[in-house]
Write the structure tokens for this entry.
Amino acid sequence: MKLNFRSTTSGAWVADVGEIQCFNYHPEGPDQTALALADDLTDGMDTSLRRARDYLDLFVDRGKACGDPQEDWQLIEMELGTQHANGRPFVRLCFDLHGDDGGYWSVYFRQAQNEIRPYQFDRTQG
């Protein structure tokens, strides 16, 4: 899926991806390498979502996190960025888990060899 970013008044860049939005916070918009990564990831969005959810499930007990082990991870937004340390592009898929009040779960993807792979997750409290 080709993402078409537009500038916002807050200085961010945003693209629509189905029912959610993808954000980029670089002042000049996403670079071409990062944009290609996001386009590839969204081309196989169903697979990317499954891989992100499976990755979270490796580390997170949903029963303990939200009280229901069957609760589904709900995609709420994406972010396209570049790692500060090495300049490598990443895509972050952000999820909500109903019942985990204020929890904001993220899975980071990057190009690794010949595939896009998850490499990190985190949870912040909002």
Remarks:
- The chain has three helices and seven strands.
- Residues 45-59 form the longest helix (15 residues).
- The chain has a mean pLDDT of 93.
